[in-house]
Amino acid sequence: MTDITETSREDGRRGQPMSVSEARAWFVREVLPLESDLMQFLHHNWRNKSDIADLRQDIYVRIFEAARHEIPLRTRHFVFTVARNLLIDRVRRERIIPFDAVTDADALGAAMEAPLAERAVIARDELRRLRAALERLPERARDAVVLRRIEGLTGRQIASRMSISEAAVSKLIDNGIRALADILYSDPEDRRNWS
Amino acid sequence: MSNAELEAAGGSAQQVEADAAAWLRRRHFGEWTQDDQASLDQWRGAALAHEVAYLRLEAAWDRTERLTALHPFKVEQPVAEARNWRLPLSLAAGLAAIALLTTTALPVVRHSGSAVYSTPVGGREIIKLADGSRIELNTATVLRLSADQRGAVLEKGEAYFQIRHDAAHPFTLAVAGRRVIDLGTKFLVRDNPDAVEVALLEGRARLEPVAVTAPRRGVILTPGDVAVATARTISVTKVSPDELSNELSWRHGLLVFHNATLAQAAAVLNRYNDDKLIIDDPKIAALTINGTFRTNDTQVFARMAQDVFGVRVTYDANTTRISR
């Protein structure tokens, strides 16, 4: 029910190199759930918002690369250290000081030490969260994703149902996938409730 | 970011993500060959940025796998029919499959020569007429068929008619003070407590009042028409083939809900089951759902409501209560 057991099972291997598939699983299991906190951190510490997608990509690349050599002992600490170092590198090179709080040790410390968000994920919460995420997709993209994911239709069947071309379906699905990842990882709003 | 850096990163984050989404979509849609897999592996290996972007989108997409729980099984049959409902051959193939699963109804013959067919709650029967016409009875339905098989009365419930047209002897169905006269048709008739619904899939039919005293005003129905007749009025709306197909999903033992409230869906399910769903909180009753459910399983429906909305489900003898 929780993935805490999974974590402790692997604790014995911390500090050792990972295979590609181990690194992938680790990244999905431990890094992606921190994305909303990471995005908050980046938004808070970097003025030029149009850089943020690239910053996140670079941070993930560094994390993934480092993890191949050694499984970090504490994922959260590791993720925010990488993020901070990357921002500092960027600042030094560009000779500008665009952020306020990265050097603020307290703020960074707080981000690092915050309790792991929602580690105990109960299946029911996950389903409700996914449903809420689906509801936040743009309407057409949601229709396409639902027809694919829930009704199991092919691209051609979706095109015929929605009276659009298959190319248009592809575009809707691509956008839907990207928006879903943003909603689920960057901007989870899972406290939404019907009451 | 400099150009050299962009190259090292595998492109701008936006571009990489767009590429990753396209790969993921192709991976999960339709045909996927070994060559495709090799190309994807190559792309992922070309830059760590590709790898992490793909991992992230794939993880999100894989999480939505759980959403299929909202749809516990595929609706291949209705989908095929939605696409082909004008093509008699494929429809006939679909019906042949159903015929294997459904016993042929045995009527109670009355002394007038008419025969009465009925189904219990949750039942489904197919009546084959001598001329090749067929009538499928849905749950809790009573239909009386005249001795010459060209007239019927739907006493209660719902039935789907596929009538071989005979200009000299048009098939006439009476239901709740209305009459449907076939002009060569496939149509669905449902006798609701407050109104009669007639949906026309193929051909033409006339819907008119039965009473001789009533002014002889009727409407001609064409494919896609759904007529709702109350005691005084008839309104006709056009619906899409998909919606019509959903209306007929009971023929496959399924119910398809599209933006239905929990209350509406529960009312429909209750028509098919002795185990009744009761929703006593108006806020919960108004929650909307999409999905396909088996006609004969209120438990799955209740569990789904529990999982998705976090409502409380309690069971008594013959009732399943959904509350906060």
Description:
The complex is a heterodimer of chains A (195) and B (324). Chain A is mostly helical and 195 residues long. Chain A has helices spanning 4-10, 20-31, 35-45, 52-69, 75-94, 105-113, 123-136, 139-149, 155-162, 166-186. Chain A has 2 domains: 4-95; 114-185, Arc Repressor Mutant, subunit A (Orthogonal Bundle), CATH 1.10.10.10. In chain A, helix 8 packs across helix 10. The longest helix of chain A has 21 residues, at 166-186. Chain A is elongated. Chain B has 324 residues and is α+β, with helices and mostly antiparallel strands. Chain B has 3 domains: 3-104, no CATH class; 108-244, Jelly Rolls (Sandwich), CATH 2.60.120; 253-323, Phage tail protein beta-alpha-beta fold (3-Layer(bab) Sandwich), CATH 3.55.50. In chain B, the strands form 3 sheets. In chain B, strands 1, 2, 3, 4, 5, 6, 7, 8, 9, 10, 11 and 12 form a 12-stranded mixed beta sheet that branches. A 3-stranded mixed beta sheet of chain B has the order 14-17-16. In chain B, strands 13-15 form a two-stranded antiparallel ribbon. In chain B, strand 5 (142-145) and strand 6 (151-162) form a beta hairpin. The relative contact order of chain B is 0.08. The model of chain B is unreliable at 71-105 (pLDDT under 50). Classes of the chains: A mainly alpha (195), B alpha+beta (324). The interface between A and B is large, with 48 and 52 residues.
